[in-house]
Amino acid sequence: MSAPSEEKQNTLLGKFKEKRRWAVKRFGKKLIYKLAKYMEKQSLVETTPFIPTEQFEFLNSLQANWQVMADEAREVLKFRDAIPAFQEISRDQYRIAKGKNWRTFILYGFGQLLEKNAKMAPQTSNMLATVPNLQTAWFSILAPGYHIPAHTGVTKGIIRAHIGLIIPKDYEKCRIRVGDEIKPWQEGSLFILDDTYNHEVWNDTDEERVILLFDFDRPMKLGGRLANKLSLAAMKMTAFYQEPKKNLANFEDRFEAATQRASDNLEKMSDRTP
User: Fold this and answer.
1) What confidence score (pLDDT) does residue 269 get?
2) What's the DSSP call for residue 53?
3) What does residue 211 show for φ and ψ, rounded to 5 degrees?
4) pTM for the predicted model, two decimal places
C-alpha cells in the first residue's frame, strides 16, 4: 500500500489539530467554571458586573489624563487601515467581530509591552505601566452602527477597565450591557467590569467610538492569586494564546511599515516643494 500523499497528510494533521483545539476548549470551559467559583470566594473586591471604581485608587491618574490618551489615539487613527480587526488577531473572536467593524490597536498583550506600537502612544503606554499585574491593553475602536453580540470572558481572575476617549455626541446610544446593568460611555469616564458576566455592546450612532480597554489581575487572597497564575500559565501553552501572540507580532510589524511609508511619502512631498 502506498504512503499517503503529503497533501493528504497535511489535511489529516489539520483536522486532528482542529479536533484537539475544540476538545481543549470544551475541557477548559468546565475547568474555568470551577475556577471561577473558587476565585469569586477569594476575591478582595466586589464580584458584581460593574465593580465600584473607588476600590482601585491607582487608576485615578489614568482617568485624570484621559485627554492625553485621546490625543494619542487620534494619531493612531490616522493609520486606521493598518489597524487590525479583532478577529484577525484572534480567530476565536470571529463570532463577535465581523469585517473591520471592531479594530484593536494593542499596546500590551499577555503582560508584554508591544514596543513598536507603544511608540505611537508613549504616554498612554507609560501610564499603563503603573497598573499592577497588567495583562492586556488596547485602543478599542468600534465602527458606527455596530453591535457586538452577547458573549462572556474567559477567567474570573482578570477584571477589565474602560476609559472613554472618543465618544459619539449622542453618547447614550453608545453603551455596554454587563449582566443586567447597562452603562453608556462618556469622554473621560472610567468603569470597571467583570467580563465573565454575559455582556454585549451597541454603537447605535453614526460616529466612531474609541476607548482604552485594559485587563489586570483581580485582587484576591493568596489561594486565588496562585490559582490564577497557574491557570494563565496553562492557557499560554494552548493555541488560544500562541496564535494571537504570533499574529500580534505580524500586525505590529505591518503597522510600523505603514507609518514608515507615510513618513517617507511626506518627506518626498517636502523635497518636491519649491
Assistant:
1) 46
2) G
3) -130, 160
4) 0.84
